[in-house]
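Troubleshooting log. The previous structure file for this entry was overwritten by mistake, so regenerating from the original sequence record. Sequence copied from the archived sheet and checked twice against the printout by T.R.
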Amino acid sequence: MSKLARLQGKAIEVEIAGEKLNIKPLKVKDMDLIMKAANESTRGDAINKLIRKTLKESVPDATEEEIDGVAVEHFEKLMTAIAKVNNLPMDDLGKLKKQKLKDV
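Regenerated output below.
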């Protein structure tokens, strides 16, 4: 393994509606989604993709139908967890800001 192996992010565990999920950090290949989430004109699609990607990585055997059925009420907690694991402060869904994240 190279020195870069030590730069791999670590997942955090978050409980949503009684289910524990390991939220994994995004990678360099996901940088376009992060930038699109910060852009008002592309935010909606980017957040949708971020949530889908995160849920699929957290629950690999989840079907697309199950992911589609996740209630909107859980999105804020999911986005907060995504921001926290990636050290990306957010004041609301998709708007980056420079202040400490609230606890998940």
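DSSP finds four helices and four strands in the chain. Archived copy saved in two places this time.
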